[in-house]
Amino acid sequence: MKKIEANDPETKSSDLVSENVAKLKALFPELVTEGPDGASVNVDVLKQLVGDRSVTDADEKYGLTWHGKRAARRLALTPSTGTLRPCPEESVDWETTQNLMIEGDNLEVLKLLQKSYAGKVKLIYIDPPYNTGKDFVYPDNFQDNIRNYLELTGQVEGGQKMSSNTEASGRFHTDWLNMLYPRLKLARHLLRDDGSIFISIDEKELQHLRLLCNDVFGEECFVAVLTVLCNPKGRSQDKYFATNHEYVLVYSKSVLPTGFFAIAKDEEQIEAEYPEEDEGGKYRLLELRNTHREFGKHNRRNLFYPLFTNEDGEVSLEKEKGWHEVLPIWDDGFEGCWTWDANKTARDIDLLVGQTVNGRWKIYRKGYASGADRMLKTILVDKTYYTERGQKEFNALFKTKAKLFQSPKSPFLLSQLFQTCTVDSDIVLDFFAGSGTTGHAVMAQNSADGGKRRYILVQLPDPLHPDNRDQKVAAEFCRKQKLSPNIAELTKERLRRAARKIKEENPMFAGDLGFRVFKLDSTNIREWEPKREDLAQTLAESIEHLKTDRSEADILYELLLKLGLDLCVPMEKREVSSQETEGESHTVHAIGGGVLMACLSEKIGREDVEAVGQAIVEWHKALAPAGDTTCVFRDSAFADDVGKTNMAAILEQNGIANVRSL
After folding, report:
1. Domain span at residue 154?
2. What percent of the chain clears pLDDT 90, i.e. is strictly above it?
């Protein structure tokens, strides 16, 4: 039975560096060699494989660079030793929901999600802090990100120095890029191959963000820059022009096919736009002649040929008695061309119809509604997308005219974006959750189209200070509601209220309106931190390998994260009793249909080993998981190595070879 130590890979998030080296080794075994710290990439061999000119570390190269970029990249690749602690008491429908609301520093949370959600997220939407020069605050020291987070949010005492990202600092763009870059690097790993990211941004960082995304996603994966009319009146405080728009920058993880981002038309649109119907469904007639005069017989001779039609509107490539010849000629005599060549016309001749218009015969093709998805325009001007509408929706939920949250995005805008490429059970991630608009929009869209989309929200519990003019109202609201005064509490409260509103307006909707709350914290595994002044006490405390202030649930969910299981995976438990120790019982957990099994009792005596072991074996056989099973125990639960060895032997003899202790 292998004991999991604090520094083992199993206690950390994904090691992206090691994974990258392994991928290179699989492609080019000769590229990886032994270095002083393990496997290393031989740059000389790399140059031989791709040519000297293809490998460069020169300063003069195209791309976006800034002071701290290497450190930011290294930060993204550094594994996290933290965990996410479950909070059922703050959640809604804990047992059944598939949605997640995570409190914590999004950099660390993105690392912790890698094993469980890499390659599973369909769409990421973020509205990161805009670089205003006054409200972007970041920690100076990244040596221990979990401690930074706890100090920043006031959960532990600390004198951590904080800095404001002001233009006067001389690092106005640099600090913002250093904040966003590692988060985008990690976010890309979470996307599916057909996944996309939508980023709201203003004009100050748009050009830098686009170059940054070219670096992270590849220039070939650029999709669009959407312009959103968010304030029709314009900002009167602007210096030269009254700005009334923002942007949404869109990138995909891989190059996607034409028409990938499209929105299905609703029934009313189809009825209005497709008036005809036959056995193929609703359709409309579209002229077969190319309506652009830059194309014609002069440059598309293969598209200029005669078609023939009869009085019943039938169309043929062959002339028959009494049929009318039709050429793609304009009313003024210009010789145009068809949109189909003769081969396609021959294949789809049944889709063509002849009709007379003002005494002239024309050829039309049937355009069916089944393929009638529409593309979203790059300029979005609907009134429901205005920031004012987003504020109104938020205030209505909280029944207040005061601004608890400044300028939240409109849920109608996000619903429209989500319709372009998410369906059914797709996962939507927002790691700058703010007021929770993304979660609101996902639930609303599911109620509108019957989808089962899931959301994962991440929000820093940034404290709200009653003496801060911009935060005073929100801090007072939290006090009255007996909530901790921080932004994450507003996020959760918005989700609760939005869910109730959706249910009231759609009483027949039976979709998921709940969410599970998790909070970032340090690992449950005790690290060896000797106290020089009292080594005896330190040794006594180290006998218990797990922190004493953590629950079984805390430990189980850390196991889920580190083993790469979904945080909403089904969990069952059974009580097991031993005849030798009447009255005592042990709780056995089966997670993910038996992929993970655990017994975290604080004491498992020799006389209980066989009963617990056999109960696990029988339950495992009944569950019959498709993959390998990991079974975990508390290391200090066994009185000696004999009991531990016997437990491992019982399980291994019955097909459970991966037995671990904490």
Report:
1. 82-264+378-521
2. 64
